[in-house]
Write a structure and sequence with these properties.
4-stranded antiparallel sheet, 10 strands, single chain
């Protein structure tokens, strides 16, 4: 367990260092409601970022800006960024034109998101049916999953 914690701590520090170097910004931590900690970063795009999704062994990052637009950068071999391509991005690119994203989650091969109306969206690799859309078709851009409008988290 000690090695696992050390590895995740090192990865977390590397992520913060990479963000600082890549965007020449210093991240800072603020308290959110309920006393939870949330990181806020300025990524050199025209507004503050309100949500960041990434993780260990996930080679891309998704950002929700304060205007609720979705942005992404990093590995994109299965279109896990959702920018309708498989081009790896070294700078944030806008994902679609919608300004109603409230939550995103990343996986090595695909990503999921929830919009303000409570709908669930998925994109990227779907070879195992992991997007939940009833197919095995990879999705190059966010695709609505089902018709339910009561999703809160992925």
């Amino acid at each position: 367990m000690k090695n696992f914690r050390q590895k995740n701590s090192i990865l977390g520090l590397f992520f913060l260092f990479a963000i600082d170097v890549l965007f020449a910004q210093t991240p800072y931590i603020t308290s959110a409601e309920g006393g939870n900690k949330s990181a806020q970063f300025n990524f050199g795009i025209d507004a503050k970022v309100s949500f960041v999704a990434t993780g260990p062994e996930v080679y891309h990052t998704l950002l929700i800006k304060s205007d609720s637009s979705l942005w992404g950068f990093g590995l994109n071999d299965y279109s896990q960024l959702g920018d309708n391509s498989t081009v790896t991005r070294t700078r944030p690119v806008r994902i679609g034109t919608d300004n109603d994203w409230v939550f995103v989650a990343t996986n090595r091969y695909y990503s999921m998101g929830i919009k303000a109306d409570g709908t669930l969206w998925g994109w990227g690799y779907n070879g195992w049916g992991n997007l939940g859309d009833g197919t095995f078709t990879n999705r190059l851009k966010p695709t609505q999953i089902g018709s339910e409008k009561d999703w809160k988290a992925v």
